[in-house]
Backbone:
């Protein structure tokens, strides 16, 4: 691999072993993939920061780096941790508070912004063509597809190495030649009556090449859920969104056209709550966007308190403070609000029979992680099934 004189010096350890090790990881992975140079990045998003996911080995790894007091060389954000930073949730168990604090101290000490979110683009929307090194599959696919930024789907250690060095290997989705849509997917009108994450689950499972999606105008939160579901059930990191993905950040060479019918996606609707079951409604995977908060406020205004189960809403701490009046209204309706975390990366305090969510990604993970039955429903259906 070609390295600039500066990169050579970093690799030789001139700036300390942490930077040398971080660059070595990037160079080794890049060489294994056939990359011949590095590229500067403007934003690293580090996933793999939740104690309940990375445990003691992950904590030790981060603390070893932190002991040398390095600083991230680029703007860096971090994924959710395993605790509710608002300390109000009765659904999320804060049993690893102390361990998570050690992880957070290391990351923030190295210079990460303590955003604790899987929607880092809320804090810094990337520009078209900008090179990034992001972990977190839902954020990666959103960056590439919605903003036209360029990032591969990195694991936590690789994104951390890029935060430290400011570089990633030039390969994959950093190159325009690899951003070619080959399968055109049309979504039939009936699907639009349901959450678009249903379509995402199908595409993730059934389409291997980069898809181009013809979607009717849809709010950002529906696109976020659609893309996240695709990335969870498949290995997608880019979907060209016709009329949305910025021109010049992709090419098209359509080989096949698929029309997605309601009957294709129906099976992902999953379970509907039986009368005796305990239900956890869940909104916020990926983290709740202000657009969804406004809808939740409208839906919840007329109710006083849940009739069955609980509605959990997860969001970044900063959205909660910026939209505090909506959060207060939700809290007054006994919504359980957890900040900077989500059930994918944390422990639940008690067992529920069924989760009702608008998220295809949660549908994919909750059964595996928490052994819950899961059903997919719209925001309105979720609120009504908990509050009426
Ligand atoms: C499922 C996933 O959202 C879990 C995030 O956990 P972590 O930040 O990698 O611990 C990871 C991903 O989708 O990339």
Residues:
């Amino acid at each position: 691999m070609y390295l600039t004189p500066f990169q050579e010096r970093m690799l030789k350890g001139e700036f300390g072993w942490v930077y040398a090790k971080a660059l070595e990881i990037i160079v080794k992975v890049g060489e294994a993939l056939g990359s011949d140079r590095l590229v500067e990045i403007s934003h690293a998003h580090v996933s793999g920061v939740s104690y309940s996911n990375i445990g003691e080995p992950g904590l030790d790894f981060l603390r070893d780096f932190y002991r040398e007091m390095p600083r991230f060389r680029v703007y860096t954000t971090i994924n959710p941790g395993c605790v509710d930073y608002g300390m109000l949730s009765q659904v999320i168990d804060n049993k690893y508070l102390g361990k998570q604090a050690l992880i957070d101290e290391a990351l923030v000490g190295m210079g990460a912004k303590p955003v604790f979110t899987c929607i880092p683009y809320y804090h810094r929307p990337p520009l078209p063509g900008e090179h990034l090194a992001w972990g977190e599959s839902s954020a990666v696919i959103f960056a590439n597809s919605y903003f036209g930024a360029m990032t591969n789907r990195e694991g936590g250690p690789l994104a951390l190495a890029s935060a430290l060095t400011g570089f990633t290997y030039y390969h994959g989705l950093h190159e325009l030649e690899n951003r070619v849509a080959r399968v055109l997917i049309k979504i039939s009108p009936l699907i639009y009556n349901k959450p678009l994450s249903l379509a995402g689950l199908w595409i993730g499972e059934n389409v291997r090449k980069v898809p181009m999606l013809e979607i009717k105008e849809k709010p950002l939160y529906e696109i976020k859920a659609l893309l996240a579901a695709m990335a969870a059930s498949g290995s997608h990191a880019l979907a060209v969104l016709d009329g949305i993905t910025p021109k010049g950040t992709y090419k098209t060479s359509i080989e096949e056209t698929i029309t997605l019918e309601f009957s294709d996606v129906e099976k992902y609707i999953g379970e509907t709550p039986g009368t005796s079951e305990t239900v956890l409604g869940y909104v916020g995977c990926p983290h709740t966007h202000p657009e969804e908060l406004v809808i939740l406020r409208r839906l919840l205004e007329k109710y006083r308190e849940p009739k069955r189960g609980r509605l959990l809403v997860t969001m970044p701490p900063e959205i909660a403070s910026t939209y505090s009046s909506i959060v207060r209204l939700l809290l007054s309706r006994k919504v359980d609000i957890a900040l900077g975390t989500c059930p994918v990366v944390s422990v639940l305090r008690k067992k529920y029979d069924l989760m009702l969510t608008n998220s295809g990604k949660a549908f994919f993970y909750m059964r595996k992680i928490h052994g819950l039955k899961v059903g997919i429903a719209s925001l309105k259906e979720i609120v009504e099934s908990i509050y009426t």
Summary: The pocket of PMV is lined by residues 47-50, 53, 79, 136-138, 156, 344-345, 365 (CB under 6 Å).
